[in-house]
Amino acid sequence: MSGRTSAPGIEGEVLWRGDPGYDRAWEGVLWNRVRPRRYPEVIVSAASEKDVPAAVELARSRGMRIAMRAGGHSWCGSPLRDSGMLLDLSQLRRMDIDTASATATVQPGVIGSELAMELMRRELAFPAGHCATVALGGYLLSGGLGWNSGLWGPACASVEEVEVVTAEGGTVRCNADEHPDLFWAARGAGPGFFGVVTAFRLRLHPRPSSVMTTQYVLPLTETGAAVRWAAEAAPRLPPNVELGFILGTADPSLVTDGPPPRTVTISATAFSDTDRNAAEALAPLRDCPLASRTLSRQIAEPTPLDSLYGTASDAWPAGHRYAADTLWSDAAFETLLTKLAGAIEAAPTDKALVLAPVAPVGRKPELTADMAFSALGESYVVPFAVWDDPAEDEANFRWLREAMHAIEPLGTGHYIAETDLTADPSRARRSYAPEDWDRLQRVRAAYDPQGVFHSYLTP
Ligand SMILES: Cc1cc2nc3c(=O)[nH]c(=O)nc-3n(C[C@H](O)[C@H](O)[C@H](O)COP(=O)(O)OP(=O)(O)OC[C@H]3O[C@@H](n4cnc5c(N)ncnc54)[C@H](O)[C@@H]3O)c2cc1C
């Protein structure tokens, strides 16, 4: 070894616990300001994909388990594990777009919105995550429920091939014909994937020229009626309309006096080829019987991609403390959201919110064929606690636990990308259909028999 901050064959930084620089690197691992006090023995920042086999070799030679990080957006801090190696892939940010074949090869550290904006300039699109800062690595491996998923499916349905450095340190190409089991696992295994993905080949989609949104913001007391009306209209919306409910607190600009009230928002975005078709797609939501009760409303207004990202960034401000969890369910949204309205009413901060995308992929099983990702219900909800002050940690964690307890009896599973894997030991298992979970264990045993890679985080 040529020095403590380097290692043979590794161009990037190698920081052992106790080295100057380790604490700074550790603090930068997670986007969430809640940083579980778990400390890897060494943090290796890959300078390029060439560093990855050498990092795997270093870990193996020292008997260290490996955890990976791309963008650090795991809510529950999955990249941070005690002991072993943390392999940081955030500098792997190459993206090669081939407009003619409508394909792209991207590295895991590429940020979803950077890809989406670049594609837009080339009349192409990809279902990147809703938030502008999410990296593609963890998002694509987990399935990825992003913009226009109702039409395009989970983002991993548009992954055609992955390049993986395996537990043995070799680099393999995985697709439907080569290493099909590993390819199947790379489309959904998420934070339990047992290899390092250094590149994804993506199939791209034609850019929707018109993006329009219809939105109603109503007092939280209207949750039952509002959700019932929109859920009844939902089957009349085409798959290129993304409908969702948000429970939260009104923007202060919407009220003239007093504190902003808690609200229920119905939001539907159409991704279409023309303004006329987008407006038509949103027509079933045009005449809301509760319109006179709205705090704000917009009917089929143009919402370019950057404004969609702006709205998402307002919902998930950077530099905050977060706790999140998920539930798939077959229960009616009205039932689920009426219960969660009670939770939002009692939320410890105005920033808490509940998102409930309507049937993002549940209606179309063909969009989720041949992948580890499991769409386990028609409905899907995500409560988020959002706060600033570490002194409020306990109140916010408790709030999230109680919100989940209120709805868990109605649950059919969890979404691996956003579930709190520390909530109970069976979280990861219950994020997959039983046959998919069993297959994941078999593929893991075949590709990583010695457990070189950490498996799912547990409490
Ligand atoms: C603000 C915000 C908004 C979000 N919005 C959405 C959304 O709209 N839709 C959605 O589906 N999800 C969303 N998520 C969840 C997000 O998709 C997951 O947290 C995802 O893991 C983030 O990717 P990442 O690369 O930042 O993950 P990281 O935290 O870096 O990694 C998470 C895990 O993924 C694995 N991993 C990452 N990269 C690799 C790799 N190259 N090779 C092998 N394993 C790897 C590791 O096991 C790691 O522990 C959001 C999260 C946040 C914080």
Can you describe what's shown?
It is a single chain. This protein is α+β, with helices and mostly antiparallel strands. It has helices at about 20-25, 50-60, 110-120, 135-140, 150, 180-185, 225-235, 275-280, 305-315, 335-345, 395-405, 435-445; strands at about 15, 40-45, 65-70, 85-90, 95-100, 105, 125, 160-165, 170-175, 195-205, 205, 210-220, 240-250, 260-270, 295-300, 320-325, 325-330, 355, 380-385, 410-415. The longest helix has 15 residues, at about 395-405. The strands form four sheets. Strands 12, 13, 14, 15, 16, 17, 18, 19 and 20 form a nine-stranded antiparallel beta sheet that branches. A five-stranded antiparallel beta sheet has the order 5-6-10-8-9. The protein has twelve helices and 20 strands. A hairpin with a 5-residue loop joins strand 8 and strand 9 (about 170-175). The protein has three domains: about 15-90, Uridine Diphospho-n-acetylenolpyruvylglucosamine Reductase, domain 2 (2-Layer Sandwich), CATH 3.30.43; about 95-205, Uridine Diphospho-n-acetylenolpyruvylglucosamine Reductase, domain 3, CATH 3.30.465; about 210-430, 3-Layer(aba) Sandwich (Vanillyl-alcohol Oxidase, Chain A, domain 3). The relative contact order is 0.13. The model has no long low-confidence stretch (mean pLDDT about 95). Helices cover about 25% and strands about 25% of the residues. Flavin-adenine dinucleotide binds next to strand 3, helix 4 and strand 10.
